[in-house]
Write a sequence for this structure.
């Protein structure tokens, strides 16, 4: 086994509260030399310590970096680290239709938004596109979202482009309750070494968020976030990423699972660093 990996791994495991300085043993920490928790090497290593590796147990959940197994006595057991896959895999087709490259749309139905380009319809990707306007009743969205609002009704805000009425906003801002976003880098071992931060979205205690809402897309500084890697808790949900900036703009589209109504919400947050 690569000694560098072991050292790095033991450091991260044994000294979770230690900030590893630039002159520490781990000079070049990259995902390539972090142990793969499912590898033979890692299992051998755990076995040599008399403890199971992830492969020996059934994983019940993965949160950020940690894979957990449920033991017979009902307790959770951390069998190793897992690294979030940040890639958002692009679905290639929606049924018989390809996904569009852009976010423009001519038409909306129960499946979402569509665009007619090159003689064929393509499906607008909800994961990639943040839209606060979808065409309704045959009216198109204004090409320029800064078009002057001339009138407002239940369908949204209306403007005029090319002498035709167009919609400016049809998706309302989410205000069922308050959601606060924050971004934290804790100085403990692995998060700092791997330069991961966690984005936390906190809300009221008495909301079963996951049951009531579905997150349609999150764009972090215009990059889609892998929604599979969101973990829900009773007061907040969160995801880990290393793709952050000092000031982050988050755009979110969510849907009420019961009414199917879509909402948008935007957040700006800096990075809060906690060092131990
Ligand atoms: C790292 O080592 C260099 C050269 O030995 C030294 O100048 C520097 O102060 C050290 N940095 C830390 C954080 O210890
Ligand atoms: C760091 O590790 C990567 C992959 O293991 C390697 O390609 C790269 O050259 C290394 N960089 C340094 C400065 O050692
Ligand atoms: C992140 O999502 C991908 C699937 O898109 C999954 O394979 C991976 O295990 C997830 N990572 C974590 C840490 O949950
Ligand atoms: C849809 O929009 C594209 C440009 O985005 C345009 O070329 C096409 O003619 C439009 N189709 C309809 C049916 O409006
Ligand atoms: C959101 O932030 C505001 C201002 O900091 C605070 O007063 C409020 O309690 C927070 N709400 C939640 C649900 O965290």
């Amino acid at each position: 086994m690569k000694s560098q990996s072991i050292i790095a791994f033991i450091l991260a495991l044994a000294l979770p509260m230690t900030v590893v300085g630039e002159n520490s043993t781990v000079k070049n920490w990259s995902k390539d030399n972090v142990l793969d928790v499912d590898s033979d090497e890692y299992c051998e290593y755990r076995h040599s310590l008399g403890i199971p590796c992830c492969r020996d147990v059934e994983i019940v959940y993965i949160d950020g970096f940690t894979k957990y197994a449920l033991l017979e006595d009902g307790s959770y057991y951390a069998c190793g680290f897992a690294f979030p896959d940040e890639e958002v895999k692009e679905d290639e087709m929606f049924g018989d239709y390809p996904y569009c490259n852009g976010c423009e749309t001519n038409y909306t139905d129960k499946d979402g938004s569509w665009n007619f380009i090159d003689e064929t319809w393509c499906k607008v990707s909800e994961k990639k596109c943040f839209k606060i306007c979808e065409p309704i009743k045959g009216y198109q969205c204004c090409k320029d979202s800064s078009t002057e609002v001339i009138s407002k009704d239940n369908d949204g805000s209306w403007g005029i482009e090319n002498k035709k009425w167009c919609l400016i906003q049809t998706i309302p801002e989410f205000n069922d309750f308050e959601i606060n976003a924050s971004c934290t880098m804790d100085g403990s071992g692995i998060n700092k070494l791997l330069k991961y931060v966690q984005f936390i979205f906190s809300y009221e205690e008495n909301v079963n968020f996951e049951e009531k809402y579905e997150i349609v897309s999150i764009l972090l500084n215009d990059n889609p976030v892998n929604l599979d890697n969101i973990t829900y808790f009773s007061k907040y949900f969160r995801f880990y990423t290393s793709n952050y900036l000092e000031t982050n703009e988050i755009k979110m589209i969510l849907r009420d699972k019961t009414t199917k109504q879509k909402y948008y919400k935007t957040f700006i947050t800096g990075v809060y660093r906690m060092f131990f």
Q: What stands out?
A: The CA atoms of residues 141 and 167 lie 4 Å apart. The mean pLDDT is 80. The two ends are 30 Å apart (CA to CA).
